[in-house]
Design brief:
The protein is an alpha+beta fold and 544 residues long. It has helices at 4-37, 152-161, 210-229, 300-310, 357-375, 401-408, 446-449, 470-474, 524-542; strands at residues 46-49, 62-69, 80-81, 95-96, 121-122, 127-135, 138-145, 170-175, 190-196, 199-206, 232-242, 250-251, 261-269, 275-282, 295-296, 324-329, 336-337, 343-344, 351-352, 381-382, 388-398, 421-431, 434-438, 442-443, 480-484, 493-494.
């Protein structure tokens, strides 16, 4: 039998253990609550500049460019040997040099296709590029990253890092959505497989690199400040041209709705033909290298920018413009891709269907040729009255399924706002006769172009909800209008609700289509459409 002393000692130990469990549980709950809140939970925008009634006359448009290299340094990461040669890290098969002695492989994980794909080498540098515009008392900076996508909180962080003395009115960010660059979303590191609701899912368990995100934020800050510091009087020339579909792009999901136009600007020193910057907007996934590539590259974007800046050599080449080229992604939901497309080389002797650097180069250089010729064509018009105006609004996007829980647990897109909602952002930008609408993910073009369908077999027995097409309002007072995708956020595919098709019967053929598994849910696009339409109306009402 226990003595009385032993009895009390035993119960003290049990009580202490109970207190420890309670404290650990409370600490875990507080930690998860902190992750769910996110670092900028109270941040919000409801911006309209110039304010209604402002009569500041537009003067000369000033333009500046900043650029920073965001290529990862592979020497700081573990080197590895791909024993079975499949360009994926297979634990227990492949070997690595544990440089920091933590007992696990720390590589640079390439984003965009499957997990477990660490980089072996650098093929070409990847970039953060910033374009600053100033006129009529408004300063706008537009930033593009060679990135798969970046969550909203990081963009808020960058805005807060920038020197306030520069008097920047607004900063808009976008990712090229390249599928051959480091993971900036935490989805593509080393993973194990689970079954969720009958589907097999890869769950990343380590590899998200906060140090790399710090590099991106610091580089963006510097590029933004450099762009503003280099502002100079400029002339702005605009045009658009069709690129594709043949040899360039396809819509891999029905209904086939595409905006094939490439929207182009050239900014020159005022009164001169000397180029400061060129601007390209076109909706096409940068994924010509496919999912087996182990090299860091910006895919066809690299060749497109090089071709516009430096020119494309013979045969069938074109002279470049110099300056800095900035590529901003367009509407890529649906999805817009060159996978499965045969891309001819400019020599007209070779063509590439399979994923390769030859295909990426052919696509990028062919696109550069189309852009350069368009910017020298009679269709170019000068933006004679480049008055700047900005509308920006944060809103709550309803997330469902696994995305809802990932947000709620602070694993992805930190910042939970009840009922599965995540904070995101929409911008409308006017540069004189140009209207730019931003989308915080991969927008299905039919939401802008028109053509949303409601076919038999759809999951929701409703007519098309995302009406009218946003382009109607975008072009109400604009000569040229387009969408920048993956802007200020990345919330995945934005699918019209009447086209949501996650369970049989399928609306097209005998099988499902790709898309729903990478979407936050059937109400994401509908909510966006409502916010974007109202913001466009607000902007149009404020214009002189």
């Amino acid at each position: 039998m226990f003595s009385e002393e032993a009895f009390f000692r035993r119960h003290k130990i049990l009580f202490a253990l109970l207190i420890l469990v309670v404290l650990l549980t409370a600490a875990a709950a507080v930690f998860m609550w902190y992750l769910a809140q996110g670092p900028y939970h109270d941040y919000s925008l409801d911006l309209m500049l110039p304010p209604p009634g402002d009569k500041t006359p537009p003067g000369t448009l000033q333009v500046g460019v900043g650029i920073r290299d965001i290529t990862p340094n592979l020497d700081l990461k573990d080197s590895w040997k791909d024993v079975n040669g499949n360009n994926k890290y297979d634990k227990g098969i492949d070997t690595f040099v544990d440089k920091n002695g933590n007992g696990k492989f720390d590589g640079v994980w390439i984003a965009g296709f499957g997990t477990n794909r660490p980089a072996k080498e650098i093929h070409d540098q990847i970039w953060c590029r910033a374009l600053a515009l100033r006129n009529n008392g408004v300063t706008l900076v537009m930033v593009t990253f060679d990135s798969i996508g970046i969550f909203h909180n990081y963009f808020v962080k960058i805005r807060k890092m920038v020197n306030p003395a520069l008097d920047i009115s607004h900063i808009m960010f976008s990712s090229t959505h390249c599928h051959e660059v480091p993971d900036t979303m935490g989805n593509w590191s080393f993973a194990f497989r689970i079954t969720f609701r009958g589907e097999e899912l890869d769950v990343p368990i380590f590899g998200y690199d906060e140090d790399y995100m710090d590099l991106i934020c610091q580089s963006a800050k510097e590029a933004i400040e450099e762009a503003v510091q280099r502002l100079q009087p400029s002339d702005m020339y605009c045009t658009h041209v069709q690129a594709g579909p043949d040899g360039f792009i396809r819509d891999s999901r029905k209904p086939e709705v595409m905006d094939l136009n490439m929207y182009l600007f050239r900014f020159t020193e005022q009164g001169s033909d000397r180029t400061i910057a060129t601007f390209v907007n076109w909706g096409n996934h940068p994924e010509a290298l496919g999912g087996g590539n182990p090299l860091i590259t910006s895919d066809f974007c690299h060749y497109l920018r090089e071709g516009i800046e430096r020119g494309v050599p013979a045969p069938n080449g074109v002279q470049g413009f110099g300056g800095i080229c900035l590529y901003f992604q367009g509407m890529v939901g649906g999805l817009m891709t060159q996978l499965g497309v045969t891309v001819p080389d400019r020599d007209r002797q070779n063509a590439y269907k399979d994923s390769s650097f030859d295909k990426a180069a052919a696509l990028g250089l062919n696109t550069a040729i189309v852009a350069c010729n368009a910017l020298r064509s009679p269709r170019v018009w000068k933006n004679e009255n480049p008055r700047l105006a900005i509308a920006a609004k944060t809103y709550l996007a309803p997330m469902q399924g696994i995305f809802k829980w990932a947000v709620r647990l602070g694993l992805l897109h930190q910042g939970y706002y009840g009922q599965g909602r995540a904070k995101s952002e929409v911008n409308v930008i006017r540069i004189g006769d140009v209207c730019i609408l931003t989308a915080p993910g991969e927008l299905y073009p039919e939401i802008v172009q028109g053509g949303v369908e409601a076919r038999a077999g759809r999951d929701f027995d409703i007519p098309p909800q995302e009406v009218p097409p946003l382009r109607e309002e975008m072009e109400e007072k604009a000569r040229m209008a387009f969408v920048i995708g993956l802007a200020n956020d990345e919330i995945g595919y934005m699918i019209p609700k009447s086209q949501w098709d996650a369970v049989p019967p399928w609306t097209y053929g005998d099988d499902d289509q790709y898309g729903e598994e990478n979407s936050g849910g059937p109400d994401v696009a509908l909510t966006y459409h409502h916010v974007a339409l109202n913001l466009l109306k607000k902007m149009n009402a404020s214009l002189p």
